[in-house]
Amino acid sequence: MARRRSLAERVVWAVTATVALLVGLQSVLAYVTMHEQEDELSDTMLTREVQQIVVHTTRPGLTPTGMLVDSTLVSAWLTRDGSGGESIPAPMRNLAPGLYHFAPDGKTLHVAVADTDDGRLTVVLDATSAEERVDRFGYTLCALWLGCVVGTIWIARGVAALAVGPFAAATRTIASSAPGQPMAATARSDEAGMLMETFNRFRDRVDDMVEREREFAANLDHEIRTPLTTIRTDAELVGLEADLAPAQRQRLERIVAAVDEIIATTESTLSHSAGRFVRVETVDLRDFLVDAAAAMNDRAAAKGLRIVVEVGAGEVVDADRQALLTIVRNLLRNAIEHASPATLRIGGDRRAIVFSDDGPGIDGARLDRIFTRAGHVDSAGPRETRGSRVRGLGLAIARRLCDLHGWQLEVRSPLAAGHGTAFTLAFTEATGAAG
After folding, report:
1. Where are the domains of the chain?
2. How does pLDDT run across 309-342, given as a tens digit for each residue?
3. To 5 degrees, how large is the angle CA 322–CA 328–CA 331?
């Protein structure tokens, strides 16, 4: 399998090829232009030489035929009535008037034939030396072109190192940190191939982790459901078979409700993690919030938190009941842990629910982090700073569920004089108001 070139090599070859093509075209154009100019100059000189010979050498009826001029560069012959052309080179005899180019034995000859009053004049200009100068100019251009190519390669390597070097280094770092090892049959040394293989390895690892999490969740659901069912069954049997006091029966009913809550929460969590959503249903907000608050009244009372539901009757929404219940319970738990002792008022309507308390509030430096998993710290500490500390993942879970359902969960604190916190759960139009 052919080795793929790296990005730096591609940059070097692309720049070099571009410069080589441009400089090469310019060199060829310069050589061709120089050659044409040399031919034009030689023809011009030859034409002037013919004119001078006609003016100064030939005399009508008196000039003898044959060779008139014999010098290093110029030779001239006069022919009349077929005589005088014996010494003219064979290729140049009997030519019609005009300009001609010949190259016998490595020489470059320019020939002019003209009719005069005294006969036909043939003039030959030896342009070999001028042609050799043009050739030397071409060799010089070729050497310059090679020098440009070599210099371009050297410069392009430096440019590629500066421009592409950080990307190549980052690619190698990412590839070295990727889980697993690339397959020998598909290993590639170019950056694109390395990134593709790295992406595939990360994707395989993520797929493996997701599959393990799903398997773990399925096993957990299976394993936890059996003991919970046993607890619920035993609790119901105790309630049916034993003669319990009202307080004891209430605790037993609370145990059964807690078991049902664990099962429902587990099913809802698994559904959301798998991307499945429970079918929405119509929820009466007042009854729903009263029931949720009643389930936590004992814990709230022990902490000194009084919960007041102020949502009016008839306010209903179409929503995922279990997801909404999980959000509300987490907000109630947060108020119990961090606002107590205080009064928590739950108001609003089918558009939004507001949970406002008159507790110590949340410090502004921590306010932006309370919905993140990394923003939770232990709430242990002096009473005066406890309100600004956040413990647990309840708010992060609540915000995540809101994001999944298209709801909004916002917080404001302090509300007045350094006290009070308000969480607002806003429903979107997609949630819709029932009724």
Report:
1. 7-134, 278-426
2. 999 999 999 998 888 988 999 999 999 998 989 9
3. 145
